[in-house]
Please model this.
Amino acid sequence: MGRRLAYVIGAVVMAAGVAMVPAAGISAIYREWDDALWILVAAGITVAAGYIGWRVVGRQGIVTTKEGFATVGLAWFALAFFGTLPYLLTGSIGNLTDAFFETASGFTTTGASILPDPSVLSHGMLFWRSLTQWLGGMGIIVLSLAILPVLGVGGVQLAKAESPGPEPDRLTPRFRDTAKRLWYVYAGITLIEVIFLVFGEMDLFQAINHAFTTMSTGGFSTEAGSVGAFGLYTQWVIIMFMFMAGASFALHYRALTRPGIYFKNTEFLLYSTMAAGAVVIIGGGIWGETEFAQTLTDAVFTSLTLITTTGFGTADFGQWDSGLQIFIVGLMFLGGMAGSTAGGIKTYRIGVLTKAASADLRRLVHPRGVFITRFGKDVVPDPIVESVQSFFLFFMFLFMTGTFVMGFIASTLPGAELDLVTSASAVASALGNIGPGLGEVGPASNYFGIPWPGKWLLSFLMMAGRLEIFPVLLLFTRELWRRS
Model:
C-alpha cells in the first residue's frame, strides 16, 4: 500500500512543481530576476522530491477505495507543504506557519490570507498564488488523471475522494476521459472570463489572475480592496462567472449540446432559488445605504460570493446590521452545486436533508407508512441519505469543535484576543472554504493576527472542507491503515 501511495503522491507533487515554472516565467517577463530564480529553485526541489516518490520509491498498481482516500488526503497536505517553497525562498512570506496557511488557502480555494496588501508581491508570486487556487478548484489529482495515463488505473477511486460533491459525475465510461472533458470546460470558461475582464479596467495580468480565482471560487485578488477596487462592469462580469462556477461543470458540459438542461435540473433550480432569495434579503437589509446601482450590485455580489464560497468582496459586510451578519454566517454553510468548484455543504445535500427531514416528520404521524426520499423526480437511496446526514453531522461537529478550540487558544495564549464572532466565523469560513469572516477576519481585514496554533487549525479545516471531510478524518482511523 505504501509504495502505491508514494507512486501517486509523487506524480502529483511533481505536477505541482512543473506548475511553478510559469510563475517563474511571469517574474522573468516583469524583470523580477531574483524571484524568477528562487521560484525555479522551488520548482526543481518539488519536481525532484516528486520524482523520487514516483519512480524510486513508488510502485504502480490498482488503487483501492481505501487507498484512494489515503492517497488524496496525504497528497493534498504534501501539495500544501511543497507549495510553501516559492513563498519562503523568495522571502514573500517569512515563516512556515504563514506560508503554509496561504498555500493551504490557495489549493483549497478558501481565499483567507495573511497578507494585508497582496499587491506588494511580485508578479510571479501573485500568479503562483492565483494558480494554486485554479489548480485546486477542479482538483489537481483530477488534472493528473487527465494528463497522466499511468494514474488511470483505479482513477475513479481517487476522483471520488477528491471531487467536490457527494459523487463524481461521470460523463464517459472511462473516468480519464471524463476528467479531460471537465478540465476542457473549466479552462474554456476561464478563458472566456479573461476576455470579458480585459474589456473593463483590468489589464491582461489582472484579468488572468481574477479569472483563475473566480472560476475556482477561490477569491484571491491582486488588489488590497479585492474586486471593490474595480468598477461596476468588472463586478458584474465576476458576478456572472461566480454563478457559473457555483454550478456543476458536468452540467455545463451537457448544456453545450442541450442548453435547456439547466431548467430541467432540480439542483440547479434550487441553487438559483437560494441565490435569488439571498439577494432579496440582503438587498432589503442594505436598501438606501448607497445609490440603487451600487446597492443592487453589493446585494447580488455578496450573496453569490458567499453561496459559491468565492470570498471576493465589494462591500464590508462586517459593518452591516447584526441581523444581516447572522444571515451571512448562515450563507457560509450552503455552498454551490455538487460538481462545482464551490465549497460548503452543497446544494444537493441541502435538498436531500430537507426532503429526508420532511419524510421523518410524516413518518412520526404515520408510523406504518412507507416514505421515499425524492430529490426532484429522482429517488434518493437510503445509503445516500445516510451518507448526507453523516456528512452534515461531521461538518457541524468540526464547526463546533473548531470554534471551541479557537476560543481555547485565545484564552491561553498571551496577547491573543479573539472574540466569539471572530472565532466562529473564521472556523465556518475555513471549513466552508470561503475566506473572509466577521469580526477581526472580516472582508476589510485579514488573518495575519490569528495566533499561530489557530492558523494551523484553520489550515487543517480548510483541507477537511475542500476534501469533503471524510478523506482527512479517515487519515486518523485505524481502519484506513489496517491491512486487508
